[in-house]
Amino acid sequence: MPRLALTGLTLAQFRSHAALRMSCDGRPVAIHGPNGAGKTNILEAISLLSPGRGLRRAGADEMARPGAPGWKVSALVETPGSSHEVETWVEDAGPRQVRIDGKASPQVALGRLLRVLWLVPSMDRLWIEGAEGRRRFLDRMTMSLTPDHAEAVLAYEKAMRERNRLLKEGVEDPGWYAALERQMAAHGADIMQNRLAALHRLATAQAGAETAFPAAELALEGPDGVALPETAEALADALARGRPRDLQAGRTLAGPHRADLVGVYAAKGIAARLCSTGEQKALLVSLVLANARALAEDFGAPPILLLDEVAAHLDADRRAALYDEIVALGAQAWMTGTGRELFEALGARAAYLHVTAADGLSRVEAT
Is the predicted pLDDT of residue 212 greater than 90, yes or no? Predict the structure, then answer.
C-alpha cells in the first residue's frame, strides 16, 4: 500500500527537546510518559511540517528553548512514489523558513507535499465554544483535501483587513471599497466552494465506512442561522449593501469569515453541542477518520495523524476500535498518553517511545 510517513525526525532546540533524532518505520507511534514531559512537543513539531502555526497555534518565536536563538525541525518523508527532506526553522527571531529537498519554499508548498491531521484536547470543546474554532477545524480539513484553499483564505483575509481599515477610519467613498470587495468576493466564493466540497467528501467518507464511531451530519450556517453568500456575485452584493452597517461596526459583517460549522449526531438526531462529552469526542474522532479515508482515496495514501491524549473520554473498547481503524487505514498515527497501558490493544502494530523530563529537558527512549 502506498504510504505517507515520516521515516526520520530531528528536533533542535525545540521547546523541551534540545536534540532529538529518531528513525521510524511507518508504523503508528505511541508516545507515553508523565504530564509535562514533552510528549505534545513532538506532535507540535510534526504539525509544523504543514502550513500554518501548528497544533498549538503558537508564535514561531515561542517554540525555541529558553535562551536558544532559534529552533529547527527536520524530517525525512516518504510519499507515494518518492521521498523528500523537509526542514522548517526560525533563527534570531526572524520569520519561519521552509526548505524542501534543499530548496527554499513557501509554507503553502508543505500542504501539497504532506497531509497532516490532528486532534488535540483543546478541540474537545469544539462543539460548545465559539464559531472561530469550528471554522479553523473545517479549514484544516478543507486544506488537507484542497491545498490551494490556504492561498484563498490568506488572500481573502488580506483584502478584508484593508477593507476593515477603511471602515475603522470612517471612509465612505464607494470607490475605495469596490476593488477590495471584488477581491474578497472572488476569494470568498472559492473559500465557500472549497468548504462545501470538503463537507461533501466527509459525508461520503462517513457513509461508506464500517466504523465504531458515530457519523456527524455537517452544515455551514451564517450568524443566527442566516444563509451565507456562496457565489462571487452574491458576496459582492452583500458587501456593497452592508457598507452602512459595517461602517457602524467598524468591521466586515458578511462573508465566509462569519460561517459556523454545525454538527448533528446523525443516529440520534441530536445537535453535537448537546451531546455528552464522550459522544462529542467520538464525533471528532469520526470526522478525523473520515477526513483520513477521503485523503487516502484522493491523495493515494492516508495522511499523518497527530492524536494528542486521544484516549481521554474513550473507553477501552472505543480505544481498541480506533487503533484497529488506524492500522486498517495504513496511517502513521503519532499518539500520546500518560501510560503505555493505554495503547495495549495496539500490541506489536506500533512503535513505542517513553518520554521523561529533568531540569527542563526531555529525554526520549524507545521501549
Answer: no
Please calculate the CA angle 42-84-120 and round it to the nearest 5 degrees: 25
Distance (Å) of CA 197 to CA 142, 193, 204: 8, 6, 11
Which residues are paired to 12 by β-bridges?
19, 72
Whether pLDDT at 313 is above 90: no
Q: How many CA atoms lie within 13 A of 169 on its CB side?
A: 11
* 93 secondary structure, DSSP code: T
3-class DSSP state of 43: helix
Q: Measure the CA–CA gap between 285 and 303, rounded to whole angstroms.
A: 14
Q: Say if residues 59 and 53 touch (Cβ distance below 8 Å).
A: yes
3-class state of residue 302 by DSSP = coil
Q: Are 334 and 306 in contact (CB under 8 A)?
A: yes
Domains of the chain and any CATH numbers: 1-117+310-367 (3.40.50.300)
Residue 119 · residue 288 · CB < 8 Å: yes
Judged against a pLDDT cut of 80, whether residue 208 lies above it is answered with no
Output DSSP code: residue 308: T
Looking only at the bridges linking them, the beta strands covering 216-221 and 260-265 are antiparallel
- pLDDT per position as a tens digit, 6-28: 999 999 999 999 999 999 999 99
- pTM value is 0.91
Q: Report how far residue 305's alpha carbon sits from residue 292's, in angstroms, rounded to the nearest whole number.
A: 8
> Under DSSP, is residue 20 helix (H, G, I), strand (E, B) or coil?
strand
pLDDT at 299 over 70: yes
